[in-house]
Amino acid sequence: MMIGTIRINVIVASLACIFTFVLSIGNNVFLSTCLKSGYSFLILFVLTFGFRWVLGLLTGSVSLLEASSDVNSSSNVGQKLDLITPDEDAETREMMKSNMPNNQNAALSNEAQFSPLNPPKLVTKNNFDPEQLAGALRRMSED
Q1: Orientation of helix 30-71 relative to helix 6-24, angle to 10°
Q2: Which tens digits make up the pLDDT trace of 114-124?
Q3: Is 36:17 a contact under the CB 8 Å cutoff?
Q4: Per residue in 7-44, is it b (16+ CB within 10 Å) or e — as a string?
Q5: pTM over 0.85
Q6: Residues 6+ apart with CB under 8 A from 37
Q7: Which of 25, 78, 93, 121 has its CA 20 to 30 A from that of 130?
């Protein structure tokens, strides 16, 4: 949130440019004077944006604080942030106990059911028809 318009930036930067030009024309070459005036214009143009932004924050925060104090003068809802995580050790232990098997036979039966994957072996075809290979090569070269 900024105060004013970009016209303020242009006016302040133009005044700085003219002031720099007038003070520098007597001591420098014309091109150097124009360059320094342009630099002063750019620097003050950007600095004015920052100044307007800071003023907007200051005036905006003051008005927001006044408005919030009028609305929520009696309640402190939203004024405190609690960053403490609750202790859930008992709940976590109970959940882990319910997921564990009750007897050792269940663990042994699970181990007995395990079998590694047996993927099919790749088969290579060694006897290709030369006409089919030439046709496939022609089709691939056309694309």
Answers
A1: 150
A2: 667 777 777 77
A3: no
A4: eebeebbeebbeebbeebeeeeeeeebbebbeebbeeb
A5: no
A6: 17, 18, 20, 21, 24
A7: 121
